[in-house]
Specification:
Elements (H helix, E strand, L loop, with lengths): L3 E2 L2 E5 L6 H16 L6 E6 L4 H15 L3 E7 L2 H10 L4 E5 L8 E8 L7 H11 L2 H7 L9 E3 L4 H10 L11 E5 L8 H8 L3 E5 L18 H9 L4 E5 L6 E4 L8 H14 L7 E5 L4 H9 L3 E5 L3 H10 L4 E3 L5 E3 L8 H15 L3 H4 L8 E7 L12 H10 L3 E6 L5 E7 L3 H19 L2
Parallel strand pairs: 3-4, 3-5, 4-7, 8-9, 8-10, 12-13
Antiparallel strand pairs: 1-2, 2-6, 5-6, 10-11, 14-15, 16-18, 17-18
Length: about 450
Amino acid sequence: MKLFGTDGVRGEAGSFLSAQVAMKVAMAAGIYFKKHAKTNKILIGKDTRKSGYMIENAIVSGLTAIGYDVIEIGPMPTPAIAFITENMRCDAGIMISASHNSYEDNGIKFFDCHGDKLSHEVEKEIENIYADDEQIAEAQLVGKGIGKAKRIDDVIGRYIVQLKNSFPRDISLQGMRIVLDTANGAAYKVGPTVLEELGADVVVLHDKPNGYNINEDCGALHANALCNRVIEYRADLGIALDGDADRLVVVDEKGEIVDGDQLIGALGSYLNDIGSLKGGGIVATVMSNQGLDDYMNEKGLKLLRSDVGDKNVLEIMKRENINFGGEQSGHVIISDYAKTGDGLVSALQVLALLIKTKQKASKALRPFKLYPQKLVNINIKTKKALETIEGLDAKLKELDEKEIRHLVRYSGTENKLRVLLECKDAKKMNLHMDSMVEFFQKALNA
């Protein structure tokens, strides 16, 4: 059974991700972490999905069964779990979330003692332990060997201090009006608190989670309501987070969404201008627009590309000693302040940029023009290996001949094929996209 996708273990709660699977995954991960244990403590946080109760209890049962002590901190953003795991000297951290997916899904993300996501090699090792029933049976303890669990409700303060420390001390948000959409997710408390403590006038949307409304027509994936409210309240900026708050979408003062690549370009250039950018460049993914490449070149900075996933971005950042990178989808990593994508850290840097440059968001956050680009998600029945699809090589060769950049990949978390095309000629690009969609719908839904 393959457990790990692009970002942890994820699937429909109660089906793929049942209580039994969650408990066994926790045992397998716990067995791995015990090899490097220092404190015998593991931290658990979650977003606001109702299924989080079931999965949390299953994970606690699995970890305590093999002797781990567990600290439960309730609903908190994914980047908070990464930070607090290291801050509290835990052997590992676990976040229960399916990020931007709807409430029916849930997931389990792991962090090591340093707050870093696990490598593919470590994930594979945990999968091997998961498949070894004898090893899992032998790891279960009795009597005084069984672990304990406790819930702590005040760790939110540690994360708030960390967020505020990422914002320049010589400025404040006094006089700024911000509309914040927390997606009925994990940042529904911490997000408004941080912005208000830094002096902003905050209008909060979708901060009433009920277990089912996370990401529902709101947040980073559905920013229409945010766009309208920014105009209605004459706000300086709109900020949308996703369910676990590791993703950021920004809306300018005109109520228009800022493209993720333009946001990365603006932030990268700003960090370089203030002397904070390390490594002489930034990291983006294969999905990022060619316009970002051109802009970085103009600035004398390099742009390195990774596979999709903020974990892959961070891997290259570490290797090249670069402290800034991100994905056009809104995962932005500023490693001086966060070990993973952090929507609130990124939002605070955007606000600092606007204040320091004394520019409106509509100008400051669009420093270059984008090449026409289109991404289509195709619902599919089966994930057939791309190299086995008859006729695909010819289709891709035709795109190359037409000077259309292309990327075709399966979603790591959903039954979808993602097709990205990019070209200076939008009309030509759209015609070929229609042809590609028709081709894949026949090839993968027969």
